[in-house]
Every structure is written in C-alpha cells, then in structure tokens.
Amino acid sequence: MTDAFSLEDLAALIARRAAASADQSYTRSLLESGTGRIAKKFGEEAVEAVIAAAERDTRALKMEAADVLYHLLVLLQDGGVPLQDVIDELARRTQQSGHQEKASRTS
Asked: How many other CB atoms sit within 10 Å of the CB of residue 42?
C-alpha cells in the first residue's frame, strides 16, 4: 500500500457506508440489524482473534484483528461514540501507569 490507511479513515468509511442502502452496503445492513447483532459479530471476531493468537497463527491473527477493528468501529458508529473519544480516553489513561489507572476506576 502506498498511502497510509488509518483507523480514522476506516471510521470515516463506515460513517459514509452507514448512509448507503443496505443492499449496497454490508455496513448499513449490519447497522440495520441492531446493536445486539453488531455486538455479537464483534464478539465472534474477538474470539476468533484469540484462537488465532493462541495457535500462534500470525496470518489468521492479522485477518481476525482486522475484523475485530472493523466490527468495533461499526459498534461505535451504532452507539454514537466517535473514534476520537476513544483515542482521547486512551490518551488520558496513558498519563499514568496501567496499575494506577485501573485502581482509579470506580466500581
């Protein structure tokens, strides 16, 4: 690939495809199927990524990780959560150690 492709690019593509017709866009059909279906697809892809990692199958892990990221971004689109909000949260959390951040969370 000559041009850099980012998660922001993917999120923008998902937002555009969300406005398309379901017969033209898998993303739109997934969004129309509802949050439960999107969450289930995300979970399925996450499990497949875990299995690939456990089996040390780098090719499968790469493919499944791409599916995980795509379905996570569709889930965020469905929930009205901009990717930038997630990035901002990650930036906030990296201001302290992981142990400190975890201890600071409310139960």
From this structure: 19
